[in-house]
Structure to design on (1525 residues):
């Protein structure tokens, strides 16, 4: 087969850049971001950041070069869009046009106004977030697009060189050989070599060892072997470790698959995002077909993280068929010079070389004699001579050859002279975004370099910290959670904890506080919110463009599932998005529903929708959502509804009762007592009524009461647990009155909604010759003949014999909330 | 604010669909001419568009171990190349084949490969569309199905199920020009089928069209009855659209009201087309037993409950627990069936068992039989009295009555007061059966032996030979497939002739095959045995419950949910009416000491009746085994050595060389004519021979 070049269409070069500034669009005279000058008594650094915001933990600093106790001044320009009244909110003084402006209404001219902020770090956590509001828009974090500066001083370039030095030190794995006390520096692992001979062709291994940069100009692996003979020895050793490939159908793609799927592979390569990194000027794939043993390329593409802790190639969750298609496409890319058989080598010498040349410092190498341990004795990181060894302009034969250019060498030398001293999200975030090429597909303070825009664009990272909850960010980055499964570009998986610094870093650079996820919205509000989400009368038909409760959107457009919105998004962001979506994402398809409404109406409606969203999967099914879901929904209108079934968290002999007004409870006919109560819609019967059924019905709403595991009545002797037997129930106006025997005495119990909220459980014990003891759990009250009876310290309240056979227990209702909006805003913790 | 993109609003299709009752029936001289004319009118009214579609091409089988083939990507999924050769199951080279035999809108058999279990196959065809448009695809499958349109996945069902026409619906967008459809259908075990229909009509519209077609067929049946319909007519009882009448039980009240309890937990009463909700919120009631003018007893999963309408408003207001002595763990198969009441006022119910330790006995797990219930998994023991028939006396005493049942969905008390229960094929039951229930008997499924007087800790460990010794043989075995696949409720004809010539015989529904069968029982050596006969097929859904209305017509309550039934409708109520014509049928088949005696409904033609070749007989049995189901075993042909026709020509005695007890005798009467030259409506009878009478 004639070797040919891969043709990658429409790929622009991806510059690996490590600073905030170079990621953004450069303006002619005004540059994006603000200029920080920060010092800690020892050093001074100058750097540019897109916003002045940060949220730092006690051990973190504003820059990795500074200790946490720093003082800093930030200057630049604030772009004011229109002449008008503005309020800038901040906890520290903010100077605009030379005047202090924070937290009061000021009149600002349109244009770029000088802004200055000074910050003195006190011990402990530190946070700075600038918000503003005006007559033109509501309260919001000041967007990065409003901050610019002129005249970047040369000191900024020096700081960027240090950041670049740190990145090179970590990417090239310097500290694998040169031990360091600096815990900030991460070691980078390399591939497990146990199966290298199984996966890779020995001809290719030989060439790679001889000169990694011949295959890939950006290879991190240095050249450490000194002759063809040594390369042959190591190749022979690795080849000896190979396992005979398993030739069953799963690992070896069939010929006809390969023949028919190369086109499919080409299409996948362009569509799912491979070309974002492997496009023209990106990570070279020339000769990849010569690298892998037949069938192994597909296995590698399908599971690139396996045995390769340090790899930058992520896992795209490919099916076997997709991997085979990609392998078929890429496998054609062969080079004859990688396929020349290597000279014979000495296996034992090869093993010795792997230990003595430091290979084992990065690679895991195990054979039947045990693990190969590096025997290379390298100076410690802190005592390195920056002019010698690997860093020498012309490294000696005994050094590792990284083929560094002058700028790389200078960056590493600079970092060695001035290593980082603190953790700093402001330094980490841009470094990691560049390392993992996030900005190829995602917009990040500037347009994405690779991805298409419009409805197929992956979410922007510019405001990610303001938008996503860190819990969800962690889910996306480490637990394969996805909210837009339909996008053509695939968000790959980078490893189980690889991107932890971003989970912490994105919210930190936005300067946001952690927002608790748990809320207790009022059901009435949840219900009106669901009505707005639906397409019934007065509904906004959100479900036309958004998935909801696992059902696809009803229209052409597709947005993330609304039932997952609260789990994913910060509450303040949801509100801002609902108020005016185009302020966050200009040109978004999401309509601004409320701009024409008076503020109180608008906030009421937004509050309702927010309440519905915060109910998550328990959201009432919006009107218009696919009939199949709604068909199985039992709702309560004017009269109580009784349903027997094996409810969750109760015995199979349970009876659910839904009351008008939105409260429901579960009565267990086996233990003859109320087990729990919830507010919301009544029951989803799909688990019972669909297919063979046989699953528990799903109470739809929020539990507000769970009974303790104790029968609440004692007749006579309070220490003896009575025996109970269920006898049935009678309906009066559809409300059941349960009948059961307690130690042989017939008892009736009727449970109804209390006008004051909560539930009244009205008992008639039928026998007044004995004392009656009632167990009152927290919040539950006992009333006999209109008067409260208080329980003793153990929770038991006594109704003396011959007092009354009837008494009432009051179960408190869902937490009372204040005015609609604040209730959700405060997001009460349960 | 109101600037909605117009394309997001639901598209309202204004269709000239036949309103309910609208006439589109064109009666012509023959049945076929009438059907064609009416259908043409219907299609014209609806604007039915036929899409030009290429014939199906299909390729298979590809392996699907444990059903995993449904998610394994085989080459046709990546690119369809109709000329390609693939490696199929077991490395066989397979190619695309002609699928001309597959018909749209019907159930198509896919068991055409050398191996049809745990396999998948692909089907491909193209659709020509003259414009960009949204249309609807309706799919059904047994078991898994995945569909692609122009390479994009449009539908996926991955699991096991019985086929139901049009069960899955997908709205698709056809582009102008040629569109390609690819289906992938997988089979786990058993039947392997798919259905496909392309229509411009949405499910709601399609439902109305199907309804119109059904009404057309019914009218055709009335005007031009053929076969069974000439003698027994099926009328569909109109059920309001908002009543999900998945019939679990039915009974007639003293005032003539029909009480129907449904699997959704409602009890509806019906009198003169008036439906009224008597009760709701019950836990899957599977039987109704009236006990007074205002009172019924139903079997809910957890208990037997008496429902009383104390204030006479037609709705129950009192729910009394009569019996709940069995444990209830919440497992899907834990039904309580019944109750029925004997003349002394005792109630009887049955408790389905769900446990069979397939893993322990190294058998393929079936239908989730071993799936733990939501409330804890304790093999067998957590669920007391599972597999038992119980009695509740008028004083409320609970007496475990008879053991060894499996899924006994059908109780009936004969005119003489004997209790019979039908049971379903599965473990320990090679075919569906009818048990005569007697106190303390053991009927065959050992799960029940966890409890009772002979309780043991490991009933499944009892040797099969010992169980076989102990078990009471079923009175009737329904040969699997030909005589249904899920026998349901038995009912005796006590109409005094209003239902035709089979007075005092038993009728029994079948859920899967949507049939009603006929059973004639006799007592031999003190035990019941007898024959079953085909009677009437062609119902709209799975027949679960039977009750005779006061006019002598047979009401048939139906459901197919979870266990598919042919017929196509998910549930409903139909009425089987005797037209007054007597069909020429084998009325009964009784055993003699040396053969069988047949009784016919009409005098027979002596010449054909005397010919021994008219009677084709074979006998066989089913394995009594742990494994699920059984094939027919030891099929042996038998030839009559003498034939004797009675003087009134209604009876024929067949003398056989020998009679083998423990066998099912399957008889086909071929070429027999009645005196007036008619052919038999059904030529088959199946006699379960447990005992042979003494001469």
């Amino acid at each position: 087969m004639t070797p040919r070049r891969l043709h990658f269409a429409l790929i622009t070069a991806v510059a690996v850049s490590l600073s905030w500034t170079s990621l953004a669009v450069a303006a002619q005279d005004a540059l994006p971001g603000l200029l920080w000058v920060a010092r800690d008594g020892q050093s001074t650094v100058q750097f540019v950041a897109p916003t002045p915001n940060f949220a730092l933990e006690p051990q973190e600093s504003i820059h990795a070069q500074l200790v946490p106790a720093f003082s800093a001044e930030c200057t630049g320009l604030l772009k004011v869009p229109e002449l008008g009244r503005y309020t800038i909110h901040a906890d520290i003084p903010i100077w605009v046009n030379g005047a202090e402006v924070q937290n009061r209404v000021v009149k600002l001219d349109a244009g770029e106004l000088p802004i200055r902020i000074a910050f003195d770090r006190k011990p402990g956590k530190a946070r700075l977030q600038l918000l503003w509001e005006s007559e033109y828009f509501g309260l919001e974090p000041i967007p990065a697009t409003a901050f610019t500066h002129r005249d970047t001083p040369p000191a900024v370039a020096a700081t960027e060189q240090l950041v670049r030095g740190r990145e090179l030190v970590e990417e090239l794995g310097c500290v694998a050989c040169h031990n360091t006390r600096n815990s900030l520096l991460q070691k980078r692992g390399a591939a497990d070599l146990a199966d290298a001979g199984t996966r890779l062709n020995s001809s290719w291994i030989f060439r790679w060892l001889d000169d990694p940069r011949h295959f890939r100009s950006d290879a991190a692996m240095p050249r450490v072997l000194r002759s063809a003979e040594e390369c042959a020895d190591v190749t022979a050793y690795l080849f000896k470790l190979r396992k005979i490939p398993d030739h069953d159908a799963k690992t070896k793609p069939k010929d006809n698959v390969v023949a028919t799927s190369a086109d499919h592979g080409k299409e996948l390569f362009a569509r799912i995002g491979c070309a974002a990194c492997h496009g023209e000027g990106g990570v070279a794939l020339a000769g990849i077909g010569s690298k892998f043993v037949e069938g192994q390329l597909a296995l590698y593409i399908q599971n690139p993280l396996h045995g390769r802790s340090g790899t930058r190639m992520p896992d795209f969750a490919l099916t076997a068929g997709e991997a085979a298609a990609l392998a078929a496409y890429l496998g054609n890319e062969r080079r004859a010079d990688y396929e020349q058989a290597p000279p014979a080598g000495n296996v034992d010498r090869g093993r010795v070389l792997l230990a003595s040349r430091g290979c084992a410092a990065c690679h895991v190498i195990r054979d039947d004699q045990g693990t190969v341990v590096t025997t290379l004795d390298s100076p410690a990181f802190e005592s390195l001579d920056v002019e010698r060894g690997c860093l020498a302009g012309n490294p000696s034969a005994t050094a590792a050859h990284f083929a560094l250019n002058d700028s790389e060498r200078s960056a590493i030398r600079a970092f060695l002279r001035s290593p980082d001293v603190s953790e700093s999200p402001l330094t980490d975030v841009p470094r990691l975004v560049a390392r993992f090429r996030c900005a190829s597909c995602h917009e990040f303070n500037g347009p994405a370099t690779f991805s298409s825009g419009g409805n197929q664009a992956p979410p922007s990272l510019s405001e990610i910290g303001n938008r996503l909850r860190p819990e969800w960010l962690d889910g996306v980055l480490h637990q394969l959670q996805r909210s837009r499964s339909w996008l053509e570009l695939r968000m790959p998986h980078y490893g189980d904890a690889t991107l932890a610094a971003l989970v912490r870093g994105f919210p930190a650079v936005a300067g946001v506080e952690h927002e608790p996820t748990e809320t207790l919205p009022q059901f009435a509000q949840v219900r009106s919110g669901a009505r707005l989400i639906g397409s019934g009368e007065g509904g906004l038909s959100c479900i036309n463009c958004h998935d909801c409760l696992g059902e696809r959107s009803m229209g052409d457009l597709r947005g993330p599932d609304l039932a997952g919105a609260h789990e994913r998004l910060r509450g303040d962001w949801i509100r801002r998005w609902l108020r005016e979506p185009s302020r966050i994402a200009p040109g978004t398809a999401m309509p601004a529903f409320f701009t024409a409404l008076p503020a109180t109406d608008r906030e009421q409606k937004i509050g309702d929708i927010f309440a519905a969203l915060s109910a998550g999967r328990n959201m009432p099914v919006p009107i218009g959502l696919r009939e199949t879901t709604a068909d199985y929904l039992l709702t309560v209108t004017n009269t109580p509804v009784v349903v027997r079934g094996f409810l969750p968290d109760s015995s199979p002999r349970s009876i659910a009762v839904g009351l008008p007004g939105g409260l429901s409870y579960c009565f267990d006919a086996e233990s003859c007592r109320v087990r729990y109560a919830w507010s919301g819609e009544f029951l989803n019967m799909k688990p019972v009524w669909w297919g063979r059924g046989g699953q528990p019905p799903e109470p739809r709403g929020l539990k507000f009461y769970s009974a303790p595991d104790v029968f609440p009545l004692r007749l006579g002797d309070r220490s003896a647990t009575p025996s109970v037997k269920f006898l049935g129930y009678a309906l009066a106006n559809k409300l059941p009155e349960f009948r059961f025997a307690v130690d042989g005495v017939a008892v009736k119990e009727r449970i109804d909604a209390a006008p004051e909220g909560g539930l009244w459980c009205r008992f008639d014990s039928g026998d007044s010759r004995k004392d009656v003891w009632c167990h009152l759990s927290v919040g539950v009250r006992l009333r006999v003949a209109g008067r409260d009876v208080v329980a003793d310290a153990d929770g038991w309240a006594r109704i003396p014999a011959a007092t009354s056979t009837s008494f009432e227990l009051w179960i408190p209702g869902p937490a009372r909330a204040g005015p609609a909006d604040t209730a959700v805003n405060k997001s009460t913790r349960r | 604010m109101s600037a909605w993109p117009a394309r997001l609003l639901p598209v309202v299709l204004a269709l000239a669909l036949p309103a309910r009752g609208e006439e589109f029936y064109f009666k012509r001289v023959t049945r076929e001419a009438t059907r064609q004319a009416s259908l043409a009118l219907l299609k014209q009214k609806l604007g039915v568009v036929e899409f030009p579609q290429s014939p199906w091409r299909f390729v298979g089988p590809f392996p699907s171990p444990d059903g995993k083939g449904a998610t394994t990507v085989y080459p046709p999924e990546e690119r369809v190349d109709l000329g390609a050769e693939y490696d199929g199951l077991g490395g066989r080279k397979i190619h695309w084949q002609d699928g001309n035999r597959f018909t749209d809108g019907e159930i198509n058999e896919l068991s055409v490969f050398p191996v049809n279990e745990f396999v998948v196959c692909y089907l491909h065809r193209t659709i020509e569309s003259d414009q960009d448009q949204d249309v609807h695809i309706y799919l059904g499958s047994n078991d898994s199905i995945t569909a692609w349109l122009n390479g994009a996945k449009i539908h996926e069902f991955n699991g096991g199920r019985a086929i139901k026409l049009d069960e899955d619906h997908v709205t698709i967008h056809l582009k102008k020009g040629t569109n390609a459809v690819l289906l992938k259908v997988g089979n786990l075990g058993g039947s392997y089928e798919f259905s496909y229909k392309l229509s411009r009509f949405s499910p709601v519209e399609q439902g109305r069209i199907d309804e119109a077609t059904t009404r057309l067929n019914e009218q055709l049946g009335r005007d031009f009855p053929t076969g069974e319909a000439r003698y027994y007519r099926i009328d569909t009882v109109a059920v309001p659209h908002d009543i999900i009448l998945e019939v679990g039980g039915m009974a007639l009240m003293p005032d003539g009201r029909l009480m129907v309890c449904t699997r959704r937990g409602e009890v509806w009463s019906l009198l003169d087309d008036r439906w009224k909700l008597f009760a709701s919120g019950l836990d899957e009631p599977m039987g109704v037993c009236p006990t007074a003018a205002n009172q019924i007893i139903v079997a809910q999963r957890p208990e037997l409950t008496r429902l009383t309408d104390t204030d006479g408003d037609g709705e129950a207001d009192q729910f009394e627990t009569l019996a709940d002595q069995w444990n209830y763990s919440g497992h899907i198969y834990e039904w309580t069936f019944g109750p029925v009441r004997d003349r002394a006022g005792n109630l009887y119910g049955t408790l389905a068992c769900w446990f069979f330790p397939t893993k322990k006995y190294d058998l393929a797990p079936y239908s989730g039989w071993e799936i733990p219930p939501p409330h804890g998994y304790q093999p067998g023991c957590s669920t007391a009295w599972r597999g038992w028939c119980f009695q509740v006396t008028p004083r409320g005493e609970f007496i475990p009555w008879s053991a060894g049942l499996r899924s006994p969905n059908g109780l009936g008390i004969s005119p003489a007061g004997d209790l019979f229960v039908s049971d379903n094929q599965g473990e320990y039951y090679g075919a569906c059966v009818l048990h005569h229930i007697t106190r303390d008997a053991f009927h065959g499924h050992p799960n029940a032996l966890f409890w009772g007087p002979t309780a043991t800790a490991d009933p499944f460990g009892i040797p099969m030979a010992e169980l076989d010794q102990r078990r009471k043989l079923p009175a009737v075995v329904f040969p699997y497939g030909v005589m249904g696949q899920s026998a349901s409720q038995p009912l005796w004809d006590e109409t005094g002739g209003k239902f035709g010539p089979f007075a005092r015989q038993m009728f029994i529904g079948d859920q899967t095959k949507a049939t009603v069968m006929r059973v004639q029982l006799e007592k031999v050596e003190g035990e019941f045995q007898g024959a079953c006969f085909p009677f009437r097929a062609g119902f709209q859904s799975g027949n679960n419950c039977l009750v005779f209305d006061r006019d002598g017509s047979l009401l048939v309550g139906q459901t197919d949910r979870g266990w598919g039934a042919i017929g196509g409708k998910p549930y409903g109520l139909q009425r089987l009416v005797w037209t007054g014509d007597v069909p020429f049928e084998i009325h009964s088949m009784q055993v003699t000491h040396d053969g069988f005696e047949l009784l016919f409904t009409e005098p027979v033609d002596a010449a054909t009746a005397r010919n021994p070749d008219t009677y084709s007989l074979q006998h066989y049995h089913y394995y009594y085994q742990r494994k699920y189901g059984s094939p027919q075993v030891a099929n042996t042909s038998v030839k009559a050595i003498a034939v004797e026709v009675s003087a009134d020509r209604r009876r024929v005695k067949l003398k056989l060389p020998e009679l083998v007890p423990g066998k099912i005798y399957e008889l086909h009467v071929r070429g027999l004519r009645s005196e007036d030259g008619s052919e038999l409506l059904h030529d088959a009878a199946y006699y379960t021979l447990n005992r042979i009478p003494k001469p």
About this structure: DSSP finds 28 helices and 34 strands in chain A. Confidence is low (pLDDT under 50) at residues 1-28, 246-259, 817-830 of chain A. The longest strand of chain A covers residues 71-80. Residues 425-507 of chain A form one domain.
